[in-house]
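Revision sheet: structure tokens.
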Amino acid sequence: MSDSICRWGILSTAGIARKNWQAIRNSGNGTIVAVASRSVEKAQAFIDENSAMVSFPEAPRALGSYEELLASDDVDAVYIPLPTGVRKEWVLKAAEAGKHIMCEKPCGIHAEDLKEMIAACEKAGAQFMDGVMFMHSKRLDAVREVLNDGESIGDIKRIASQFSFLAPQEFLDGNIRVHSGLEPQGVLGDLGWYTLRIALWTMEYAMPKRLSSRLISGHGREDSPDQVPTEFSTELFFDGGVSASFYVSFLTEHQQWVHISGTKGNLLISDFVLPYFDSEVAFDVHNAHFDLNGCQFNMERHSRRVAVKEFANNHANAQETNLFRNFASLALSGKPDSHWPDIALKTQILLDACLESARADGKMIEL
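Predicted:
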């Protein structure tokens, strides 16, 4: 491994890898040396299409098998955006090959699978991290500062979030996210990973004591063995009287907000997953005041906007670039950080519990 450049291989040509192609190029400490697909022609087409927009000094080579990529001596880390249903196999093989691993979410089908994957990475001395981009935005530092100032929010009492998009018919007919063999958690795995993570982050990774979930609707494409969740909601209960809820959906148009309420005020991030296209990322703090004066009942608006100079996407300081830059720094250091697999496992444990509850018609699950 170079002391300053992490050499990446991409395992598959999934759509999200196109965004991360540019993130690696902008990271300053990473380069892509190979892309693997089930056919070398498909891998080459992916490389050509992305290189036409964002090129590397030396074009990555196309490989016709995942095994060939993992056997490559010039690959230090692999990005694995394969479907959840087959992801465990390749994470284990990548760890056995001594590669650092950036894993798309949800990381596994079950928490036991993820525990096995993490253990394999620990044995190999490899860094494991899930691909949650917002965790690497500088906006979270500003949010934490507001939450901790003691006055803006006070004691946290409630966390509510929604992440949804209106899937077109072609998505419902053919996308892997509505095939139970490929993405068995459906919308919960695809979008709920984010809503669970933001609740955990807000609570500084304290786990809830219990939760109750509802499967609102499900769907499966024609070749799917079973339906997967397409609308899902959950209520979580933490120590200290704090509660959280989320709703995720493939049937409701774009929303991706989180609202944190406390004893003195509330905070709203209206775009916590994929920031609105801009040169800054922001959130709003509200401290409304109710003024009662005889017959006059006045609700006063006291709000402020907090902004961080950070491009929304495709720039050197965007959150996806920070994700790959931070990962590469850990890989290059030779000192894996256990924080990242730890919080991935906590998220997976909660996801499992949500499904267990929903399948039991909302049964309260103790954690």
